Amino acid sequence: MEELRLKYPLEHLLHIVKMARSSYYNHVKTKSYLQKHSATEAQIKAIYNQHRGRYGYRRITLELKNQGYTVNHKTVSKLMGSLGLKSLIRRKKYRSYKGEVGKIAPNLLKRKFLAEKPNQKWATDITEFKVNDKKIYLSPIIEMFNGEIVSYNISESPNFQQIKEMLNGAIEKINKKNKLILHSDQGWQYQMM
């Protein structure tokens, strides 16, 4: 159509192909936009692959500016979207340590995790799971004699209430005369007991 436009008026050509004037100019604008940014797209792909997908549009924009390209961050974001490039998000691992909050109990197990009889040694910790883009925290108590789950609690936040409910469920199952050791990582929830 662009070659014919040099010989014939635009209105006649648009009438023949039954195209609106705005559609034609939108097509011309898009084509020139793509041609203008083809070199930038190639450089964006190179930077993205060089950093194994960990760079988002902001860091790629900075890298392009360092390499002498003059490009807006919004343009980089659009080009990345059209190329199907999206930065990978590193998962953050749950860590319960917040320093010394309460009392720290002595380590009675000293890495001797095997128990000779039931209800002698228990271990507990909090584990984070991601389910349907939502974080869930599991807090079980494991019997070190046979690996059985004595009690557990599932919560949407790792808090002291979760630990209390888990312990109340476990205490109902033991004989008060037993000398039981409950081993934990001494996270802030356990230091509050």
Automatic annotation (TrEMBL):
Domain Integrase catalytic: 114-193
A molecular-function term among this protein's GO annotations: nucleic acid binding
A biological-process GO annotation: DNA integration
NCBIfam families: transpos_IS3 (NF033516)
PROSITE patterns the UniProt entry points to: INTEGRASE (PS50994)
Organism domain of life: Bacteria
Stretches of the chain forming a coiled coil according to its record: none
Protein name: IS3 family transposase
Gene3D superfamilies on file: Ribonuclease H-like superfamily/Ribonuclease H
